[in-house]
Specification:
Layout (H helix, E strand, L loop, with lengths): L5 H52 L58 E8 L7 H10 L5 E4 L1 H6 L1 H9 L3 E4 L6 H4 L3 H19 L5 E2 L10 H9 L3 E2 L4 E2 L10 H17 L5 E5 L14 H25 L2 E3 L11
The protein binds zinc ion.
Zinc ion binds next to loops.
């Protein structure tokens, strides 16, 4: 019988064991290195997809104090998507309307029965982010307002226009383009832009809108413009109380409320009907913008208006006002 030398076999067996242990260790090391590599890639992918998700919702993300444009660029990761486009709306340069040097109180036409009416007005929309929220606040607080709509935003948001009408709020014409250079080039250009806005609204509601607010205020209309406005059956509605929410430096809810309060005190002393100017604002490509940027301030000011609105409604109610919709019977602001 063949008996292999025990000693040699044991040595061979031990050598095999050592070799296999070394091989196992090397394989384990390779596996660990491989997994570590995959993990890093997965982490990068996760970061990128999170940013993409935030941008896809279009919802404001929690403010970290860091400009959103820097998110995803820390650590030199250039694979992250670029920050949301800074879609800055047309600059709203509507100044606080001031009374003319000699205020005539003869324009004050109190409603029959001594009912005190106030007009809440929102300019530059409609948009799909703030306008529906404003409608909800109005409804919840038993108030009504007039939306001075821009035709190009009407075309983008026909459903919001229908909501405004369904809620019993008012629509007025704020031109189609809101482009000062274009609309104030000539009386003909102004009327053409008003007509285009009216047609955009009529396509949605079936009704033209002949009551209008001139972008930037009626002081932009020279005599020839007034003649054209009258000849074409348009009726101007201005304002005499401002929220100050078009300020380029941004505004807080408390400032909006205080602006309205002081404006209301002033028009009451003059026995005028309050016509309050606020902004729901233009339709934007994004509602997420770096804090402190012009777009960020614009969005924050709109939020401030929403926070101040219930208080403003309460203020008007506490002084005995009912809420009216702007129309051809709306009294002159001054
Ligand atoms: Zn405007």
């Amino acid at each position: 019988m063949f008996h292999p030398p025990v000693k040699t076999a044991e040595i061979m067996s031990k050598r095999c064991l050592v070799s296999s242990r070394i091989l196992t260790a090397v394989l384990l090391l390779l596996l660990v290195m491989l997994l570590a590599g995959c993990g890093q890639k997965a982490a990068v992918n996760r970061t990128a997809s999170n940013i993409a998700a935030d941008q896809s919702t279009g919802q404001p993300v929690e403010q970290t104090g860091q400009p959103a444009g820097d998110a995803g660029t820390a650590g030199g990761d250039r694979s992250a998507p670029p920050p949301a486009p800074a879609s800055i709306p047309r600059a709203e340069a509507e100044p606080a309307a001031a009374p003319p040097s000699s205020v005539s109180t003869s324009v004050y036409r109190p409603a029959a029965g001594g009912e005190k009416k106030a007009y809440l007005t929102f300019d530059d929309g409609p948009n799909n982010y703030f306008t529906p929220r404003i409608l909800d606040i109005l409804k919840a607080n038993g108030a009504r307002a007039t939306f001075m709509v821009v035709g190009s935003n009407v075309v983008k948001n026909p459903d919001i226009v229908r909501l405004i009408v369904a809620d019993g709020d008012g629509l007025a014409n704020h031109t189609y383009s809101h482009d000062y250079k274009k609309i104030y080039a000539s009386p003909q250009a102004f009327i053409a832009d008003l007509n285009r806005c009216s047609e955009a609204v009529q396509a949605v509601t079936g009704q033209p809108v002949k009551v209008f607010r001139a972008p930037g205020g009626p002081q932009n209309l020279k005599p020839a413009f007034w003649q054209a406005v009258k000849a074409n059956g348009y009726y101007s509605v201005s304002w005499n109380v401002v929220g100050g929410d078009a300020s380029s430096t941004g505004v807080t809810a408390e400032q909006v409320y205080q602006n309205v309060l002081s404006g209301l005190d002033r028009v009451e002393k003059l026995h005028l009907t309050p016509i309050i100017l606020l902004h729901d604002g233009a339709q934007l490509d994004t509602w997420n913008a770096p804090p402190g940027s012009p777009l960020g301030r614009y969005i924050e000011s709109r939020e401030a208006v929403l926070r101040a609105l219930p208080q403003i409604i309460d203020l008007l109610k506490s002084r005995g006002y009912t809420f009216a919709i702007a129309d051809q019977n709306t009294p002159a602001a001054w």
